[in-house]
Design goal:
324 residues, alpha/beta, Rossmann fold, 2 domains, six-stranded parallel β-sheet
Length: 324
């Protein structure tokens, strides 16, 4: 099977290892890194690379860049979306609420690889071919360096997005009450070094229904992960409170568990070890990439060819040849 993998070339998170694992695990896979402009105007690019020669066309982009390209997307057999933000489809107050569902319903043969187990189930209940393949971490870049940890509590990441308003509020409050470090770093070595200085990494993915990539990265680097509980998602991902992760459901519970971890160094060390082993065994890019490749190549629903008018329009506009 021949796979075309279209990915974003401007991402802050470095996912090269994930793409390489997918490529290695497919029968044949060609990776194309698209600029923002190319992602927003897929037609000319697809016409230039003979997309019909591929059995699967996998798109990893922003939904806002895709929703206005429905005519082009309708012309792609074997269409697969790789999606790490589909939790916003069900997130109260998100400007992308229901946007994902509307797009996928208009492309009924497509497959969507989403990073939340509950999100995947909700989409399947809407008759969308949605499959859960979790986020993960780059095991070639992130690991426990075995160094002394001089930052007791810390969070690394952005608080700017509107979707992160609840995260921002609770992290800033926890910082006031505990002295926790809240900062950003550059991707790569600075991020690795700083994670290895943090004893307890505080995550606050409130209202998202799934765990962001930083949770897996922190565990892999030997931090005790103190994470906002995602309800049913916790168990589906294998997160066990006070065993391989520490879960909280309120700010007061977070404070209580922080104090417990600070008072019981042996407990904290044990949870950190279990969390690291858990992340290494289940959430490395080597494992996640192989799972993605398997789902990309699995049999899909039959393609529904677009109307004659759509085929003529994309041919005239972009030079795309479309099978009837």
């Amino acid at each position: 099977m021949k796979v075309m993998l279209l990915v974003m070339d401007e991402q802050r998170v470095i996912l090269d290892r994930l793409y390489e694992t997918v490529q290695r695990s497919c029968d044949e896979c060609v990776i194309f890194r698209l600029s923002k402009q190319q992602q927003m105007n897929l037609g000319p690019f697809l016409a230039s690379v003979d997309y019909q020669a591929f059995d699967r066309v996998v798109i990893f982009s922003r939904v806002k860049r895709l929703v206005r390209q429905l005519a082009v997307l309708k012309c792609i057999p074997g269409l697969v979306f790789l999606e790490h933000d589909a939790y916003q489809n069900y997130m109260p107050g998100s400007k992308y609420r229901d946007v994902y569902s509307r797009l996928y319903h208009r492309l009924p043969w497509c497959r969507v690889l989403v990073s939340g187990a509950v999100v995947a189930r909700r989409m399947r209940n809407e008759n969308i071919d949605a499959v859960f393949v979790s986020k993960g971490y780059d095991e070639t870049m992130l690991s426990n360096l075995g160094r002394p940890r001089d930052i007791t509590l810390g969070f690394l990441g952005s608080l700017k997005s509107r979707e992160y308003a609840d995260r921002k509020a609770i992290l800033e409050s926890l910082a006031q009450r505990t002295g926790m470090l809240v900062t950003r770093t550059e991707s790569g070595n600075e991020y690795l070094e700083t994670l290895n200085r943090i004893r307890i990494f505080v995550s606050a993915d409130i209202g998202m229904g799934e765990f962001m990539i930083k949770n897996f990265e922190a565990m892999a680097c030997g931090c005790v992960l103190l994470a906002w509980s995602q309800g049913e998602e916790d168990e589906l991902l294998g997160f066990r409170d006070m065993h391989n992760v520490v879960l909280y459901r309120s700010e007061d519970e977070a404070i209580e568990k922080i104090r417990l971890l600070q008072q019981d160094a042996a407990l904290a060390a044990r949870i950190a070890r279990e969390g690291q082993a858990f992340a290494e065994s289940r959430y490395s890019f080597d494992r996640v990439g192989r799972d993605l490749a398997a789902e990309i190549q699995r049999e899909m629903r039959p393609w529904e060819p677009p109307s004659t008018l759509t085929r003529l329009w994309v041919k005239a506009r972009y030079g795309m040849q479309v099978r009837g």
